[in-house]
Design a protein that fits this description.
This protein is α/β, with parallel strands linked by helices. Helix content is 34%, strand content 20%. It has helices at residues 16-26, 48-54, 75-81, 96-105, 151-165, 182-188, 197-200, 204-217, and strands spanning 3-6, 30-36, 61-67, 85-89, 109-114, 132-136, 170-174, 192-195. It is globular and about 40 Å long. The protein binds D-xylitol-5-phosphate (DX5) and zinc ion. Zinc ion binds at residues 7, 32, 34, 65, 174, 194.
């Protein structure tokens, strides 16, 4: 099943209620929330208080992308703020297994993210314990960058490997996705598509619908 996850990093933060309502009504299943700590990535975005305030705007899945060092420190607070799916970077966790178990025991779905240059083999030992792999298609930290072409090959290899293992794990792809390249990303094997600028620049509802129409071509 294909899912669109609009990234509110690219939304007008002063009009978040309208922006979230627009994409939710138009059919986006996830709201992608980029949390940055100024250490794991250069920039700082937002955290628990914002997530808590926007939680009342929608029942959609809050897909929280933790670009944070040792994100396990915030797992409980993120759950309390309203996260449904917590995605942590492999590169940011010294004890990835412990962090995964902690997120699960709090009742959230677990995702693990990989930077473009991190090989998919890094997840071999935990693949059957997680709900989603997030393959970054840009270096994390900012919206509006161009997709790095070699990441398409990683998506393809991971999907093939998951099929070999008999796993139906979601593959989320994040960064630089546009109406021009999204078909290639889906064909490579992704089924959760993050889109920031290409949704929120312009008419967010119309852009969401345009993505969902593309998804239909792939049998949804
Ligand atoms: C990048 C973030 C992305 C970003 C995507 O560090 O993780 O979620 O908001 O934005 P676009 O779609 O503009 O590349
Ligand atoms: Zn993200």
């Amino acid at each position: 099943m294909m899912i669109l996850a609009p990234s509110i990093l690219a939304a007008d933060l002063g009009r978040l209620e309208e922006e979230i309502e627009a994409v939710a009504k138009a059919g986006a299943e996830y709201i992608h929330i980029d949390v940055m700590d100024g250490m794991f990535v250069p920039s700082i975005s937002f955290g628990m208080p914002l997530i808590k305030s926007i939680r009342r705007y929608t029942d959609k899945v809050f897909d929280v992308h933790m670009m944070v060092e040792e994100p396990g420190r915030y797992a409980k607070a993120m759950k309390e703020a309203g996260a449904d799916l917590l995605c942590v970077h492999q590169e940011a966790c010294k004890h990835l297994d412990r962090t995964i178990q902690e997120i699960r025991s709090l009742g959230m779905k677990v995702g693990v993210a990989l930077n473009p240059a991190t090989p998919i083999e890094m997840l071999e030992c935990v693949l059957d314990q997680i709900d989603m792999v997030l393959l970054m298609s840009v270096n994390p930290g900012f919206g509006g960058q161009d997709l790095i072409p070699y990441t398409l090959k990683k998506i393809h290899c991971l999907r093939r490997h998951l099929i070999d293992l008999g796993l139906h794990t979601d593959i989320q792809v994040d960064g630089g996705i546009t109406f021009e390249n999204v078909r290639q990303v889906i064909e490579a094997g992704a089924n959760v598509i993050v889109a920031g600028s290409s949704v929120f620049r312009g008419d967010a509802a119309a852009n969401t619908q345009a993505y969902l129409r593309i998804f239909e071509d792939f049998g949804h």
